[in-house]
Design a protein that fits this description.
The complex is a heterodimer.
Chain A (H helix, E strand, L loop, with lengths): L6 H38 L4 H4 L2 H13 L2 H33 L1 H16 L6 H8 L3 H25 L3 H9 L4 H39 L4 H11 L2 H4 L2
Helix pairs in contact in A: 4-5, 4-7, 4-9, 4-10, 6-7, 7-9, 8-9, 9-10
Chain B lengths: L2 E14 L2 E14 L3 E5 L6 H9 L6 E6 L5 E4 L11 H5 L1 H5 L5 H13 L15 H14 L4 E5 L7 H17 L3 E5 L3 H7 L2 E5 L6 E6 L16 H15 L1
Parallel strand pairs in B: 3-7, 3-8, 5-6, 6-7
Antiparallel strand pairs in B: 1-2, 1-4, 8-9
The chains are: A mainly alpha, B alpha/beta.
The structure holds adenosine-5'-triphosphate (ATP) and magnesium ion (MG).
Chain lengths: 239, 247
Amino acid sequence: MNNNPSKEQIMFIKSLNRTKQAVKITRIAIFLLFFIIWEIAADTGVIDPFIFSRPSSIIVCAIGMLKDGSLLRHVGITLFETCVGFGIGTVMGTLVAVILWWNSFINKVCDPYLVVLNSLPKTALAPIIIVWLGNNMKAIIAVALLTSVIVTIINVLGGFNNADKDDIRLVRSFGGNKKDVLFKVVFPSATPYIIDALKINVGLSFVGVIVGEFLAAKEGLGYLIVYGSQVFTLGYKQI
Amino acid sequence: MEAIAHLKNISLSYHSPKGETKALDNVTFDIYDGEFLSIVGPSGCGKSTLLSVISGLSLPSEGTVKIEGNRKSAYMLQKDHLFEWRSVFSNACLGLELQKNLTAENRQKVHELLKKYGLEEFAFKKPSELSGGMRQRAALIRTLASQADILLLDEPFSALDYQTRLTVSDEISKIIKKEKKTAVLVTHDISEAVSLSDRVLVFSKRPASLKAEFKIEFPDNFKNGISAREAPEFREYFNKIWKELDK
Ligand SMILES: Nc1ncnc2c1ncn2[C@@H]1O[C@H](COP(=O)(O)OP(=O)(O)OP(=O)(O)O)[C@@H](O)[C@H]1O
Ligand SMILES: [Mg+2]
């Protein structure tokens, strides 16, 4: 970089900053505008506030629930279930991927099953799971687990199989065994894939938990949504 | 000189559902202690396969490989295969670690090697922070540290640009001589083979069989390495090998 930027460079930087500012302001404006229009529309009767609610009553409702602690409790429970489902899904998925990588026979046998299981709409199995495990938190976590574990297996195994053949040859030539190959090459080189799988999994587990709560729970955000639509206080749902 | 490895009537075929590929055909030669041996041959003829047989990673279909006195071999490949998730030092220790031999004393030795060959200040950096030549040097130190006696070099310089390649190959061959290691180098580059080696083996098209052997000797004032390229004998060797490959 030059110590004395030319006039042109100064102009360029200025216009760059101006664009950045404009983008930020427009973003916020759209956000605010959306809620203002919503509020006005509800006020003037363009939309029915009984069905579509309105921002002001959502805020009032949220504050009320924050005060009696019920909102935090529901959020906490959903968060807990998501974390547990996500954690178990990741650990189990990775373990299964290790087994499949280790034994190519099992891998070949399981391949078509993985494809089928992966294309299954897992959340559609939620009612069955709830019948099996009962109307409780265990069932909800199982649904979350089910939605994430197959994707984890497929992604992590893909990462494992992507390890460089010559990296493996190098470790072998130094006398390393299969365990060394796993821990010194395959695992570290698959780490980015595992992290990608984790990112996808958080979202999937969350979906699983919400769906589970739709069907089974007495607490949690999913329950709140169902409860809200049943008693028609749309203020609940909008939170 | 003492022979430390004997390859006798080695043949090897690869098997796949599509059929059989014969890669090595009745190959017999010895490797001598402390020599720099080069292997040249048309591409795809089976040179890498031959190294793999010497290393013991592949077993020949026929014939025997005998390595004298429990000597170990170690690879240096076309890419340096430094692991990005390890520091340069930890990469250099990989061989020792896998041989369950990473003692405090050996760690110290790795440090000394890094220092001796100008990588001390990069010991705890990531491999990606090194230049191409430095990376190859780090890979060599990893090989040297593993206390292997026979270094198997599979086109280790072919990924480098021409300029770097000349200096790095010269540098690496000098280090190998200094550490008194035996080296088997696979290369496509005849001039590289002539300038670095004590002996060059020429192989035929696939399946590789030994076609000719050249002992390379330069007058004292030229020595091996870059300066050898200026010796009058250089052209001669080059042409002989070239003709042999072309036959
Ligand atoms: N694992 C394998 N399975 C089947 N065929 C193989 C395998 N490895 C190598 N081959 C075949 O054996 C022949 C020799 O391969 P090799 O890699 O030893 O040749 P190379 O001389 O090292 O080639 P290059 O000059 O390209 O490095 C090639 O035709 C190759 O296709
Ligand atoms: Mg090769």
